[in-house]
Amino acid sequence: MDDKIEQLLRLQESDLEREQLEKNLDQLPLELKAIDAKIDAEKTQEAGLVQELKDLEVGRKDIDGQLKLAEDKLVELKTKQASIKKAEEFEAINHEIEACEKKIGEFETAEIELLMSIDEKHAAYEKAKGEFAVRIKGLEGRRARLLLTKMS
Known about the structure:
152 residues; single chain; 2 helices; mainly alpha
């Protein structure tokens, strides 16, 4: 009788193990989907940082263009100033020159601030880029292990 009980206990143990394996297999697609979602989230976050850098660069180019236009206008005003004979016109163009120089100073200040921001964002991105790679590699490894478990 003890032999039959022992066989029943082993059978029950095998059944429990089989049920656990089936349960794990049933949950595998959900786990894989969750891992894929995490990988996508990491890639999306990284792409967002890249886009922020691109946007800052576009802003810098825009400021560069505005600065160039203001500098060209300043040269034009100074050239025009040399040919003015009347005091009123000379005073008016001096005001325009001062306004243009002020605008150039504002553009230069904005450009410096933007360049500093770009440098900070770039440094943060480079640090985060490595962290993204590590996390993604870990998730992909976990995904591969789950798939190997399914095949076993």
